[in-house]
């Protein structure tokens, strides 16, 4: 088996685990830590810098906050007008602009970066660190995604990995990965119960997720999942920042919130203080800017932090109750509580959830690497040849993932007809019979949506599937069967046939967002240090090679072109945008179920 990476791509941190031969190891980074800050910075041309990743990138925030891209995960597969992107726009110092197809783009200087382009630098850094450890090339990977990621978001994360030169052999959900790595599966020999009910509580830097899973002798099944995409460690940091700013003002200082250069330093100091308060009762926040009023630093104790953030901890309980409801469990039913995500190191968070559930979390080693370790374990099962759970055949997969959002099509009146309901085991397939509404109609188009709301407009638009050309016929007579298949690794696939003749009908899948195959190929070459025949925009060297020319995807570019960026007019995407098949030879193989 080739070496294989399991990747946890978080909002604030990324981690990777590598299986090479019989060894499974968490990939360390330059500073010996097991996680890499999921931050990318594009230094100004004058400094001659190439894009930076991780702690080096964070350091640029003091001078050039607008060039430092944090929380890119929240932008993957998102329209600029989506609530998540609108929220992000208010929070971050970098600029977001709209691509021609409505997708969010990140503007740095004159360049517009697609979120997968930025995310690919982080995937690339994980790959480089893994190769440095393994002393051999590493290209296969399993990527964990939040359970509630829709198919466009999953596609975007797969595309990001591809741009970094990785071949994604499978996509799995983060809670399922946690369950695989936490030592819950396989069940211990002689275990008295046939299955165990597990609640995975994951409070990370930018988001909260919770999932109910059943672990049986054969595998892990995700029954229900939920969470809050806008609740994480950063909110805790922000409470400290606000407290410091108010105290400083009260003590007769200026309003620090107006000090553009001070705020990034204050946010860093607040995050450090928060982490220290998980181990100490009292910390002192020191910044040169505070010294005029607080020469010994500003004191903060654990109790104060707890009262400043208790409502944030409370807010995690409601999603847990909803997930238990969906799984039809009561709190007493839960056999195992697993708490992961850096913010669960805060003692108050653990105590609150322990009180609520009446059960203490299980002890896990290396909680920050658990998701990546689970992903690598899944990779071994998918690709085969490595260590398997007892009784598990080669290639057999231990996990039953289910769809977390319903997949449906838009009907007359803008109402959704559900095809594959939430909770269906993956891969899932569903046929639908359609006909024409006009005489001699040449094409039939269906609008694919994801979500559980009744009206199409309230769900996520995933793709439009266009079937045709059809033979001329009076309206209502053609009987077209379309089969939609999803494996949880990106945009669903579709095939169609004429039910009278049994002839296949070509289907064009036009995703509602994301990069085209040509754009992915171009970016992949750029990240690999290749050259592209396009003029440099601001003269910065491209990643990976002196001869390479830096370019970014421009919203005014045509489908296949890569060119200068600028203030492109916002025009409708041409229909041909996604004509090329999305899954070329280098495309992910997707989940293969045994
Ligand atoms: N000892 C600690 N005490 C409190 N908080 C901590 C501690 N260590 C890390 N954190 C916080 O954990 C958060 C990062 O957690 P994690 O790495 O799990 O997030 P992530 O996976 O990147 O984000 P997400 O899961 O939201 O996508 C940060 O907000 C960090 O401040
Ligand atoms: Mg996480």
Q: Report low-confidence residues grouped into runs of 5 or more.
A: 385-392, 531-594
Q: Tell me the structural class.
A: alpha+beta
Strands, total number:
28
- What percent strand? 15-25%
Ligands bound to this protein structure: adenosine-5'-triphosphate, magnesium ion
The CATH homologous superfamily of the largest domain is termed ATPase, nucleotide binding domain
Layout of helices and strands:
Elements lengths: L3 E6 L3 E8 L2 E4 L9 E2 L2 E2 L10 E2 L1 H5 L8 E2 L13 H9 L3 E4 L5 E5 L2 E3 L1 H20 L5 E6 L5 H13 L3 E7 H8 L14 E8 L4 E8 L4 E9 L4 H18 L11 H15 L5 E4 L12 E4 H13 L2 H11 L8 E5 L6 H11 L12 H14 L15 E2 L6 E4 L5 E5 L7 E7 L9 E7 L9 E8 L12 E7 L6 E6 L5 E2 L1 E5 L5 H11 L67
Parallel strand pairs: 1-11, 11-12, 13-18, 15-19
Antiparallel strand pairs: 1-2, 2-3, 2-4, 5-6, 5-7, 8-9, 9-10, 13-14, 14-15, 16-17, 20-21, 20-23, 22-25, 23-24, 24-28, 25-26, 26-27
Helix pairs in contact: 3-4, 5-11, 6-7, 6-8
This protein binds adenosine-5'-triphosphate and magnesium ion.
């Amino acid at each position: 088996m080739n070496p294989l990476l399991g990747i946890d791509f978080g909002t604030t941190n990324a981690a990777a685990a590598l299986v090479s031969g019989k060894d499974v190891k968490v990939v360390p980074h330059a500073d010996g830590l097991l996680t890499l800050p999921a931050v990318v910075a594009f230094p100004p041309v004058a400094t001659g810098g190439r894009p930076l990743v991780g702690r080096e990138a964070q350091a640029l925030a003091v001078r050039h906050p607008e060039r430092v891209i944090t929380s890119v995960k929240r932008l993957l597969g998102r329209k600029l007008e989506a609530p998540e992107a609108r929220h992000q726009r208010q929070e971050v110092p970098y600029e977001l602009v709209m691509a021609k197809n409505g997708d969010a783009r990140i503007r740095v200087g004159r360049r517009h970066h697609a979120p997968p382009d930025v995310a690919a630098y982080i995937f690339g850094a994980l790959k480089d660190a893994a190769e440095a450890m393994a002393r051999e090339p590493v290209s296969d990977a399993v990527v964990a995604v939040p359970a509630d990621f829709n198919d466009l978001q999953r596609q975007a994360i797969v595309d990001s990995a591809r741009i970094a030169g990785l071949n994604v052999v499978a996509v799995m959900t983060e809670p399922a990965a946690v369950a695989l790595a936490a030592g819950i599966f396989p069940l211990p020999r002689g275990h008295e119960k046939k299955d165990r009910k597990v609640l995975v509580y994951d409070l990370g830097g930018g988001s909260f997720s919770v999932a109910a899973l059943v672990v049986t002798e054969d595998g892990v099944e995700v029954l229900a999942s939920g969470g809050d995409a806008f609740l994480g460690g950063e909110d805790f940091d922000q409470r400290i920042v606000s407290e410091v700013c108010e105290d400083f003002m009260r003590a007769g200082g200026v309003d620090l919130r107006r000090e553009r250069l001070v705020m990034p330093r204050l946010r860093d100091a607040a995050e450090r203080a928060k982490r220290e308060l998980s181990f100490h009762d009292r910390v002192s926040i020191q910044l040169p800017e505070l010294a005029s009023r607080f020469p010994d630093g500003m004191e903060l104790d654990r109790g104060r932090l707890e009262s400043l953030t208790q409502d944030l901890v409370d807010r995690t309980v409601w999603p847990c109750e909803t997930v238990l409801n969906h799984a039809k469990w009561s709190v007493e039913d839960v056999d195992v509580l697993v708490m992961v995500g850096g913010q669960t190191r805060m003692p108050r968070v653990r105590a609150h959830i322990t009180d609520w559930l009446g059960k203490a979390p299980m002890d896990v080693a290396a909680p920050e690497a658990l998701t990546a370790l689970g992903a690598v374990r899944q990779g071994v099962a998918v690709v085969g040849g490595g260590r398997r759970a007892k009784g598990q055949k080669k290639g057999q997969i231990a996990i039953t993932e289910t769809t977390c959002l319903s997949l449906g099509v838009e009907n007359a009146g803008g109402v959704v007809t559900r095809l594959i309901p939430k909770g269906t085991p993956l891969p899932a397939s569903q046929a639908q019979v359609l006909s024409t509404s006009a005489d001699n109609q040449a094409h039939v188009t269906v609008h694919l949506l994801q979500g559980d709301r009744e009206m199409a407009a309230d769900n996520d638009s995933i793709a439009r599937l266009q079937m045709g050309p059809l033979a001329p016929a009076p309206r209502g007579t053609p009987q077209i069967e379309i089969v939609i298949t999803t494996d949880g690794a990106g945009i669903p696939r579709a095939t169609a046939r004429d039910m009278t003749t049994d002839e296949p009908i070509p289907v064009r899948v036009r995703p509602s967002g994301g990069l085209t195959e040509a754009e992915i190929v171009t970016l992949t070459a750029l990240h690999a240090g290749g050259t592209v025949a396009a003029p440099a925009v601001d003269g910065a060297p491209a990643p990976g090679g002196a001869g390479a020319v830096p370019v970014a995807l421009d919203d005014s570019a045509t489908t296949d072109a890569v060119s200068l960026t600028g203030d492109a007019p916002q025009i409708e995407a041409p229909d041909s945008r996604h004509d090329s098949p999305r899954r070329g030879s280098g495309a992910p193989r997707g989940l293969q179920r045994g």
